[in-house]
Give the backbone structure.
Amino acid sequence: MAIDYYNAGMNAYEAKKYSEAYEFFIQEETNPRCAFALGVLHYNGQGVERDFKKSTHFYTLAAEAGIVPAQVSAGFAYANAMGVPQDFEKAVSFLRPAAEAGEASAKITLAEIYAMGEAGGTRKEAAKLLREVLSTSNSEEAIEVYTKYELHKA
């Protein structure tokens, strides 16, 4: 019987046995779920040394396979130069599908990129994204971006 490395890794992770979880996940690093988990471990420095370059690498693998939380994480990493050169176009390529899936944190980061005038976005698009978030929550981060860029004028 074959080992389900993802589930074995998640069991170890939930037991806070991070090094053991890493050993399971790395066995199937091309599995998008394992890749996302490896990204989390590297980002948080759990069971491995904290390494944003590696976390972004694994988030990107998972994001390209459509894992929404990985799309958010990869987009955030590229927007904020976390282990990779800042690349707003690449950030948007990950954030847009996550935002379309309803992910609030993706909408906020995407809105900030657009509010800065990057990646072809507009202030009007930024304001729309943040209003969507604020229609369902009182997100302090959304309010902060909305206020910082004076998007009430958009």
Notes: The mean pLDDT is 97.
